[in-house]
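Chain X:
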Amino acid sequence: LPTNSLVVYTDGRTHDAKMKLKASPEFYLRNIGADYLEGLPPEIKTVPMVTLVNAGSASASEIVAGALQDHKRSIVMGTQTFGKGSVQTILPLGNNTAIKLTTARYYTPNGQSIQAKGITPDILDESAKDESGRLREADLDGHLLNGLDEESKSIEDAKIMLNEETVMPESDSSDNKQNEAPIVLGSSNDLLLIQAMNYFKGITTPKNNLRELATKDTKK
């Protein structure tokens, strides 16, 4: 990201819950010495990027994906992320005890709240059959809302507005599950990676046809 550009900000009820974190050494070095990004070749800042996400992408990974997306530095590809965008503060109580309170929400540079919604990819992965039944933050009882009008909207109303209703996966026979090969990162059945590489090559993959494409590549 450009130097001093906004990466993420937090907003809460108190003054100390409002922070802006930027792409500057004072924010990412944490007093560890010289700036390790200073000597990178300039081409690193312009090389094309695709950021892969899914329902397991949460918290810090959502902050990174949201910043890259908002600054148009990377195409985000995959499925809706988890939606863990709340900030917790630990308050000491004495006698070696403490309480952890949720005090703020994380927002992307363009002002999108990550909480209970997550990051919406620029390109949705149509091949992710196993994603529909995965739990996300919005599916958890008592979760913090995204930041809508909480006094006039119930939790269920917020879920509908954020399009985060839980969809249970269709039942599958044990035989089909056993025949389904596990996904190995970088292998021929890593369909999302194949889709990302096709994007770089300028190849448009037909909807729901990634599995067929992977099979063809394996036979070559």
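Chain Y:
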Amino acid sequence: MDTVSAFKLEVRADKIAVITIDAPGEKMNTLKAEFGSQVRGLIRQLRDDKSVRGVVFISAKADNFIAGADINMIARCRSAQEAEALARQGQQIMAEIHGLSIPVIAAIHGACLGGGLELALACHGRICSDDEKTRLGLPEVQLGLLPGSGGTQRLPRLIGVSTALDMMLTGKQLRPRQALKAGLVDEVVPQAILLQAAVELALKGRPTSREVPVRERVLAGPWGAICYSSLSVNKRSAKRREITRR
């Protein structure tokens, strides 16, 4: 018996392909190892269909985009080699999504966490709903893990090292307006028009890259670790002086 796919592809009349994420029988979308072949199959279809002008990822769930990776999938790894193979599979799939020549947009409503945010980061643009349920973050550190599917690389390039490290090392989650201010998403819209807004963004072509401040570009370079350590020391010293003056 064939497994029901969690990813359904439909091409609209305007030639935007909408990929709806809906893990069968689950209240929340979580990334599972078996989804890898499903996504790769869709990517092959998109590459073969030259008429498609863009792609939108959206969830069919009521209150989540993708809430992260399936913890049981990680727990089943019995060796470092198995864990590494799992991480590499995720990295390769995200790279294939990002490598598509047409614009790929993530339409985010609800929880977009862990592997869900890494998938959104692999897209060329991101739009989220202004709903209170919408949160974006990489909370893996709270489980003693680090993002394994490219998030440690794509997030700093998008929003700068300082904000990215704050998110990755604390598990901090951003609300829609915070995500917009940080440059993590391109637009914040009501949920009712989320899909249409994402389609319109895809039809415009790939969104232009956000200009990252000079300090963040330096931190992202080879001297970043040294510079960031110095900045952290200076901040702690300033905080101690402030406390002493009180």
